[in-house]
Amino acid sequence: MAGSSRRAGGRRLQLPLLCLVLQGATAILFAVFVRYNHETDAALWPWGNHSNADNEFYFRYPSFQDVHTMIFVGFGFLMAFLQRYGFSSVAFTFLLAAFALQWSTLVQGFLHTFHSGHIHIGMESMINADFCAGAVLISFGAILGKTGPAQLLLMALLEVVLFGLNEFVLLSLLGVKDAGGSMTIHTFGAYFGLVLSRVIYRPQLEKSKHRRSSVYHSDLFAMIGTIFLWIFWPSFNSALTPLGDGQHRTALNTYYSLSASTLSTFALSALVGAAERLDMVHVQNAALAGGVVVGTSAEMMLTPFGALVAGFLAGTVSTLGFKFFTPILESKFKIQDTCGVHNLHGMPGVLGALLGVLVAGLATRDAYGEGLGSVFPLVAEGQRTATSQALHQLFGLFVTLIFASVGGGLGGLLLRLSCLDSPPDSQCYEDQIYWEVPEEHADAAQGPLRPEEPDTQA
Amino acid sequence: MAGSSRRAGGRRLQLPLLCLVLQGATAILFAVFVRYNHETDAALWPWGNHSNADNEFYFRYPSFQDVHTMIFVGFGFLMAFLQRYGFSSVAFTFLLAAFALQWSTLVQGFLHTFHSGHIHIGMESMINADFCAGAVLISFGAILGKTGPAQLLLMALLEVVLFGLNEFVLLSLLGVKDAGGSMTIHTFGAYFGLVLSRVIYRPQLEKSKHRRSSVYHSDLFAMIGTIFLWIFWPSFNSALTPLGDGQHRTALNTYYSLSASTLSTFALSALVGAAERLDMVHVQNAALAGGVVVGTSAEMMLTPFGALVAGFLAGTVSTLGFKFFTPILESKFKIQDTCGVHNLHGMPGVLGALLGVLVAGLATRDAYGEGLGSVFPLVAEGQRTATSQALHQLFGLFVTLIFASVGGGLGGLLLRLSCLDSPPDSQCYEDQIYWEVPEEHADAAQGPLRPEEPDTQA
Amino acid sequence: MAGSSRRAGGRRLQLPLLCLVLQGATAILFAVFVRYNHETDAALWPWGNHSNADNEFYFRYPSFQDVHTMIFVGFGFLMAFLQRYGFSSVAFTFLLAAFALQWSTLVQGFLHTFHSGHIHIGMESMINADFCAGAVLISFGAILGKTGPAQLLLMALLEVVLFGLNEFVLLSLLGVKDAGGSMTIHTFGAYFGLVLSRVIYRPQLEKSKHRRSSVYHSDLFAMIGTIFLWIFWPSFNSALTPLGDGQHRTALNTYYSLSASTLSTFALSALVGAAERLDMVHVQNAALAGGVVVGTSAEMMLTPFGALVAGFLAGTVSTLGFKFFTPILESKFKIQDTCGVHNLHGMPGVLGALLGVLVAGLATRDAYGEGLGSVFPLVAEGQRTATSQALHQLFGLFVTLIFASVGGGLGGLLLRLSCLDSPPDSQCYEDQIYWEVPEEHADAAQGPLRPEEPDTQA
Lengths: 458, 458, 458
Fold this sequence. Notes:
Protein name (chains A, B, C): Ammonium transporter Rh type B
Pfam family, one (chains A, B, C): Ammonium_transp
Catalytic activity (chains A, B, C): NH4(+)(in) = NH4(+)(out); CO2(out) = CO2(in); methylamine(out) = methylamine(in)
Keywords (chains A, B, C): Ammonia transport, Cell membrane, Glycoprotein, Membrane, Transmembrane, Transmembrane helix, Transport
Number of helices of chain A: 17
Oligomer: homotrimer
Order of helices and strands of chain A: HHEHHEEHHHHHHHHHHHHH
Largest interface: A-C, 81 and 82 residues
Shape of chain A: globular
CATH superfamily of chain A: Ammonium transporter AmtB like domains
CATH class of chain A: Mainly Alpha
Number of domains of chain A: 1
Helix content of chain A: 55-70%
Subunit structure (chains A, B, C): Interacts (via C-terminus) with ANK2 and ANK3; required for targeting to the basolateral membrane.
Strand order of the largest sheet of chain A: 1-3-2
CATH architecture of chain A: Orthogonal Bundle
């Protein structure tokens, strides 16, 4: 067939060989370095005077499973809105995240839980691994449809390392708070992907323009992704916050922020839409911006009112971004952002970081009481003032933008290596180049890619 | 286009303005009244000799997330069975519930947790807010396809208040037990919607008759909704019951009741179907009646056998209702019940209330032991006999029917205001009037609404 | 219509009557034998010095709900890949599992929790009932599309009993460990279904060949099933393991095993695919083999490295099985395995049992410390050596294969009873014979089964 005949000789083996090499390498590294931690090792648990009920599993696992659902169901189906790229959207999400979580277990492990020559893993490392996979999938959204799976795996190989380094600088060196990852996940993932998309800019992409839109059913599949992301975002932001009121408050703030971004998205979508009609792209994406924007501040004393305002602004900015900024991004800045990650993760992520600066700067011992120690330990210990914490937060955003931009640039150069199998301009956003696509039983023939009449018509 | 040209002048701005006004109003009310409660405030938690593990988050949050999934995924996709109303079903569910949960936080807060001038919120209020959103979505089901989104928001504005008042009368004034909401949620939501549907009766609705059915794929999308509602219903009924055996028993009873309603639905559907073939409408809806029917009694000592019998009856009544009663409802009573909420929520809700009367009346200290205090506190304290509790339960049903009917009537009058943007009879059950609908890539042209050949055919 | 006219006279009543009889019988047995256990009975809880927080509900319910999602959403949608059998796949899964969980409550109850004349039920029995339903659905996968719903219910009636007996022999008599059911669920369910499929072999099945494949959207529906199975498999394997480190470690091992089987599936699928293109059948199924293969050993000290290797092998074996073994299975062994359960559950299940033999045989007190007592109680008590435990595990596999084969043979003979309503060879994999199937609004007429033009074309 036309699609596959372009993939000559050795290129065809790129995906299987890369999968095998990467899996082999992580397996060897796991053998050498990775061990169960105190909570998962039969010989080490229980320690001290803990009972089984104290195992972290019972405090984190339900949230972990919600996050896991967001990564694999949420991202996968959200990106399945394209009419002819549903297989790739769902299944490359699956592949990329499955690799990223292994690789980030290693990278984050070396940076955070390496002692006595071993990485120690358990519930927290699993959540962190899923978070890192989330950042990779955000970047994937920016270049969706324009790269092959082998290229994506290489991107993940690089991005996971830079994600780990950036997170280490922010959380461990700068003492920045970012439980839900407005900076470390959303801002980082978005700008990494956008810069990468700039580097692999395709001037002839209009050849695939007709596949760049949705069809009726693909929009409904995408809504599966949207809704699962939306309902479980409170778990995402609260998955790694301190136990007790911290986790509880984070979930609550995120819940209200999301509800407000939903209302503002509908309002703005109807205002700016042609003939005041709503646009599914806005609903699928901008309604989620409320989760991104409180990623840093949801664990703080944001107040329920603050959560509503933050969500409202994020939904507004995001919807307007889809309408007015995405076209400019392509025409002026040569950034082809397939899923609009700039609107869902980029701008709301930066906004969320700035909101974190504000809320951290306003922190007082009055407002937090004894809880100050768990939200801002350095402030509670007197090592920093609230203003200093705020400045550190701001600097963390700056660092993240640097890491993301440099990383995205490097990633783009890597993906432009001419030996890599990349879809031609005319075959972007098309499953058939990578997948055995079944014949449609009742559809008419669909042009050159589908020459035969299916059986059922006979 | 035909659909949108009917929406002249100022009417086009109804949805965005209403969203903005409602969001602005709730935000201001949140600023003035809403505060974190003892479990979510950094300065107030932990209180007494509680440890972080005692935070209610860990006892309620997994159930909350299941309920949240039911509201947004369950209701949204269940209503996506219509062939040309999938966008509206899923996305208006999203909009309505996002507004309803904010608004009900306020209404229920004033009625239940208002002290020292503030409403205090946390996990319980979030679950209650989702429950209230559920009642609004049940009413939405009755009028699905016949109203615009601005009308729906106004309906929610009214219904949330009446829901809160009815619930307050039942739970706080009458001491009625209704953890899973057979009365407060299902009966109330269904009859509110049905009376409202009666008031906005459209005699010319057969103009849209051809869009009132499903297509193959839309029925599968609807099954996503059904199955998620079915599996998580045990969490719905048990989300707010007393901790310990109460929550455990409620989940168990609901699980068995649902399994029995599934078998009776398949049996009855095959019995009454044309050529004994099964009907997806029955499976999508009546199989869920087992969850509704034990909404009041699942926390009581219903016994596993009682749960099976209740579920069996509910599935039977519901399936027969779809077959024989829904047509009469429209032809005789002029109630156009799009989703058949009378069969899934109305009749099983009333049945569930009556079952609650029966099981409460049979309560003895022998059967409940020390647990009597948590299930029937007034009986345990000697303030009531079991018979008196049963009579209070019965009166609660009566009150609910009054609130629902009067409220639905008022709601109908509100929605009939001629200034409101309502779809014409010929454009009911049609997404295109509210949504940018993508062209189908491989479908033939579909009449006047889709004049252009899509790109991919070129 | 053609489909239904073949179903003459009394046969039409088979499904409704069977549903009613089975539901009636289980209800009576529930009335006589089934009671709440100590954790669900208001009069018995709390016992000893337990507080409400100690109720098993809080340790098991989130995992139970994940398992429940896998059974009803996972299996149901995974099997919806067929182009014209989506209603039956999702809805017969629903029916079969709803019956199986009631029936297995009784069967497993008599074998495991029967004392003082009563079966006592709670969270553990609910998880066990869902597990048993899982085995029935695996067998369903082997014969998908070739049997009517009444036949399936009879299969479940038999299989649940044999599942219970086999599990009793393994867990209670032999002291075998199999928390995630590599043997009791996957191996048993697969070989029961495969032998049954052999007995009901249809030589003329090519008459339905054109319906045996997927269409684009049905493959996406199937991916809903795959992804939910994949993300929640850690909960499946850990749902019934000992609390604390056991549950934690089991989830962790399964998580990594699945990530490795995903990478190996993509690698192998691309290697063996035509023109190196990926095949959705492999991704939908083989990527899950990592969950099956650690079903026995995930609670043991498998090590994270061991989990990766196990998952990698399982994904490889499973993908190669689909490519090379499934065709032989039909042509040489006359086993028509619709969903390829031999590749997903059969071979990985046996592999998982053997891995359990290996890991059990390597168990030392050094590696498990005090935890040896909860993983291998008989070894810890000195009643067995690790080698003896390994041999018992091996014997358990042998017993399972015997039970499955004999049971599947009996099941096949039962389903071949000429009085049972079975679809003709030309109507296999076709919903229309059992379901009212809606007209497609925009599709062309589809041959003899769809003679009328739909309304919307008018």
